[in-house]
Specification:
Layout: E1 12-15, E2 23-33, H1 35-41, H2 48-54, E3 70-74, E4 77-82, H3 87-104, E5 109-128, E6 133-143, H4 145-155, E7 162-164, H5 169-178, E8 187-190, E9 193-196, H6 203-206, H7 220-248, H8 253-276
Amino acid sequence: MREYIEIDMSPIFRFPPTSGQYQEVVLAYLDILGFKSILEKECKDSPDFLLRLLSTSDFYTSSTYSAPLERRIASDSILVWSTDLLGGTLAILNICSLLQSTLLKRGSLIRGAIVKGNHFSDFIKEKDMSTGLSKRTSDEIIVSPVLATAVEAEKKLGFPRIIIDNSLIKNIAIAKQSHPDFSTFEAYEEDGRLYVDGFFTSHELRGVSHRHNPAILQGTTAEKMADACKLQAIAELNQIRKYIEEGIQHPERTASSKWEDIKLKYNSFVDLCNKKSDIDLNKI
């Protein structure tokens, strides 16, 4: 005869949030294109590559650049948001640009949107009724109109871009005045809209760009640094060009057209560097 099952008298109770308030945030929704390829090339044995990729934002939450950021990654989607509408905006722009550049140098593309709007997130809490102690669980609840807006904007982008919503232009201008050392990201305008430009993010690539022209450096040490920077830029651009050529040969037109678009951005960057630097990048 079967014995009775003992009733679980665990003193742990779970308390999901039953009410809350929206906060106005700046939020980036990013979609990694060709995610399966990244899993095969970079994450075959462990997820370390993606974990390190997301940890790049730690620099922007340091004591020097204190911008409160929240980050989430789920498969091919990355979320970054901040309640700091000024410093947080610049931090997110830098993170997006850096992610874009890092993935490009590994043959992967990213598409997304940075927008401003209402967002709510909270965690289910557990309370031990025998001790009265509470703790936060890993179960998160997100209700986010701004995320829905960002996803909709990203889906409308045919090519790999990270669009910056027009509502943030004023925030960026004000934030740059307050954080002069923080405004390192680059942007470009196309079709009347603003986008993050990943080509200018790399310190090596920027070393031959108009904002960091090695010609302004003086002294033996600085000249050596500039030469090393150029050599690294050549290596990076060679690698990017290889990925572009491979991507253009992709049998699926939707995939190859994305790399044709990247080729246009690549050529524009190289042309600009040739005009402002003493090295001919077309000959690398």
